[in-house]
Design goal:
By secondary structure, the chain is an alpha+beta fold. The protein is built from 21 helices and 21 strands.
Length: 695
């Protein structure tokens, strides 16, 4: 028998132990049963929303005094909201003790408690202790998922501050001892546990990204800001800068872009292991305000959150959003795959079907830009002019009924180029030249054809030209544009064509990943698919204020779409370019202006088809169009006042429809009809200014 003294000693030891919390899934259940958001709980406990997320998914545990306050709260909730089938008055501590004796968690618990990978011994990690702006976030959102690959337990990136704290995703902070850029590169590759697995089994893992705050840049010997008179994107350290010399002396290399806002530091691949680190310097303008609104001014933990969600849903940033958009295409459609050499039996790189391959491909002369060498030898046959709409209706064509309507309402199509990329068949091989080919809408390419005979209502723009004017003779068009003339019932007889025999839906995985990223991020901001049209409009009015960090992710996703498509026809840049020379972009297999033309052509045709259907269903005609924004006269301030609905209340198919997915519409802005007419009379486009009102 144990003595009384021994028993009391054992009890005292239990009393002195840290409080026991219930399993992570039970913590989340209790909070949800109480109707409390993670953000509100974070505010009450004077911590961040991300910390609460970590507690509820098992990635970390609170420390005293927060631990005691958290357990007291959970005990109270457990008494009020017992688990189904449990005795109502069981305390949280008892629940936790009982749970610890169970051999495995229930299916319900495991469904809500994803297990995070273990933290490696190298690269010490700690929970973010610095209070961040995340504490003001309102609502539960989807965050970047814990790394699934044990090689990268700390996620794809980290934001390094001047005190040596490297803020990774998921609320983890790593201790980075590096005092130089070379030490930082070696720490990142050997100790940090940063990186991301490949997006395709034939692709490559993403290199780790280190984002430097201004203080971190100065600590590493870099200037706080880059100064110069060239374009911002061309700014870089001179080759004789001490940091550049240190990098070269340590036998590391820089890409041809040098040490600028986005710097890649690497060594040649040895075996299968890549040795490459991407740096982004915030104070050098790495995160463009237009694509990443407000992010450069956020706290390091919040910068890591924004970039981490983007990396998890899109790709680890490797430069501007345009660069990332292009890199995503290649990551999802790698140019090579392993194939077995029939003679030696060895595995060697071979062409990956459906990709663009590894070699650059010259476009057909009408698809190129005027600077391209293929058109520099006297080409005078004209060029594709597949661009987005910039059209304003002639004021003389406004009717009295339209002029008496009180409002002009702008509709904006969600990521119209992304919607156009869905199931888009493009050419994968070099173009072949044909004379007088028979038109086939299934063959991607460029066609010289006269569409001047196609009649279009003058209250609508022509579907064949960006400015909406009627063609005056033969011109080059992409397949979708010519096919639309056939759809309108007109005969087409091409005079010439540059067509591609090998075809495929190259952009499909790119579309699917970005669509999911866009929809998921909107949902995080409270704009979900299940909302009615009225609820959708209300949610969109305030979605940017719901969470600035996630709003920035949404802006970056949209910029990735537009920028990625634009990069397919990147033109010469910089003072060093000389007319007639090839420029660096031409060395990429992804320099494909014909694919860009296909996307824009399909998007413009889609817009015209909707406007034509709207005229048929409602009798309304647009006042102006600018790319993916169209302005209509309206009897009320809401799109609900003029969009077509069936008697059942469902939107009529074929016209503009409201919703959060790519290709559906949202409200862009509302102004008075007098304002719109006044701009039209002055030659301005109301679609360009309807959001802000000012010219």
């Amino acid at each position: 028998m144990a003595s009384e003294e021994e028993l009391f000693a054992s009890v005292d030891a239990l009393l002195n132990e840290e409080p026991h919390l219930p399993p992570p899934a039970e913590r989340a259940r209790l909070r949800e049963a109480a109707g409390i958001t993670q953000a509100r709980l974070a505010t009450a406990l004077k911590t961040t929303t991300q910390s609460v997320k970590n507690w509820e998914n098992g990635r970390s545990e609170p420390k005293s005094p927060r631990l005691d306050a958290y357990q007291r709260l959970l005990n109270g909730w457990a008494a009020k909201y017992p688990a189904p089938g449990a005795a109502p008055a069981v305390s949280v501590a008892a629940t936790a003790s009982a749970a610890s004796t169970e051999p495995a968690a229930s299916a319900v618990e495991t469904a809500h408690a994803p297990q995070a990978p273990a933290v490696p011994a190298a690269g010490p990690a700690r929970l973010a202790a610095r209070p961040a702006a995340a504490a003001r976030r309102p609502a539960p959102q989807k965050a970047a998922k814990p790394a699934a690959d044990p090689r990268f337990p700390h996620g794809p990136l980290a934001v390094l501050d001047g005190d040596g704290s490297a803020y990774a995703t998921g609320g983890i902070v790593l201790d980075c001892p590096a005092a130089t850029v070379v030490e930082l590169v070696e720490w990142t590759l050997k100790e940090s546990g940063l990186g991301a697995p490949r997006l395709h089994r034939n692709g490559k893992d993403s290199d780790p990204l280190i984002v430097l705050t201004a203080a971190a840049a100065v600590k590493l010997g870099l200037p706080e800001r880059l100064e110069g008179h060239e374009q911002r994107r061309s700014l870089r350290l001179p080759e004789d800068h001490p940091v550049v010399k240190q990098v070269v002396k340590a036998k590391w290399r820089l890409t041809q872009r040098g040490f600028g806002p986005w710097a890649r530091i690497y060594r040649k691949v040895q075996g299968r292991e890549r040795q490459c680190v991407q740096l982004a310097i915030l104070s050098w303008g790495a995160l463009d305000e237009r694509a990443w609104p407000g992010v450069a001014e956020m706290e390091p933990a919040d910068v890591a959150r924004v970039l981490g969600v983007y990396a998890q849903r899109v790709i680890t940033p490797r430069g501007s959003t345009a660069v990332s958009g292009l890199e995503l295409m290649t990551a999802l459609r790698p140019p090579t795959r392993a194939v077995q050499d029939p003679q030696t039996g060895n595995w060697v790189p071979g062409h990956n079907p459906g990709s663009l391959g590894t070699e650059p491909m010259d476009s057909a002369p009408p698809e190129a830009t005027p600077e391209h060498p293929v058109v520099g030898s006297g080409w005078s046959g004209g060029f594709l002019n597949e661009e987005a709409y910039q059209w304003v209706r002639d004021v003389s064509l406004l009717t009295d009924e339209e002029c008496t309507l009180p409002y002009a309402v702008g509709l904006d199509l969600n990521t119209a180029f992304l919607a156009a990329a869905a199931r888009l068949v493009v050419g994968l091989s070099a173009p072949d030249h044909f004379h007088a080919p028979t038109f086939n809408p299934k063959i991607p390419g460029s066609w010289l054809v006269d569409l001047s005979h196609v009649e279009v209502d003058p209250r609508l723009p022509s579907p064949f030209t960006p400015d909406g004017t009627r063609p005056t003779g033969p011109a080059w068009y992409q397949t979708h544009t010519v096919a639309y003339a056939q759809e309108l019932g007109y005969n087409v007889a091409p005079l010439e064509g540059y067509l591609r025999r090998e075809t495929g839906a190259y952009l499909d995985p790119w579309h699917d990943r970005l669509k999911e990223a866009y929809v998921d991020t909107l949902a995080d901001l409270g704009v979900t698919k299940d909302l009615t049209d009225a609820q959708f409009l209300a949610a969109m009015e305030q979605h940017k204020d719901a969470d600035p960090a996630m709003a920035a992710v949404l802006a970056a996703i949209k910029a990735t779409v537009k920028g990625g498509i634009g990069k397919l026809r990147e033109r010469p840049q910089g003072k060093k370019y000389k007319e007639g020379e090839r420029w660096p972009a031409l060395q990429r297999p992804t320099w494909r202006p014909d694919i860009r033309a296909a996307v824009i052509s399909k998007a413009r045709v889609n817009m015209h088809r909707k406007m034509r259907n709207m005229a048929t269903m409602t009798g309304l005609y647009p006042l102006a169009v600018l790319s993916d924004c169209v302005v209509y006269p309206s009897p009320g301030e809401s799109p609900l006042d003029f969009l077509p609905y069936a008697a059942s209340g469902k939107p009529q198919p074929g016209g503009f429809r409201l919703g959060p997915t790519p290709g559906l519409a949202k409200l862009e802005g509302v102004q008075s009809m007098l304002w719109a007419v006044d701009l039209m009379e002055q030659g301005y486009n109301p679609a360009r200014h309807i959001k802000g009102g000012d010219v």
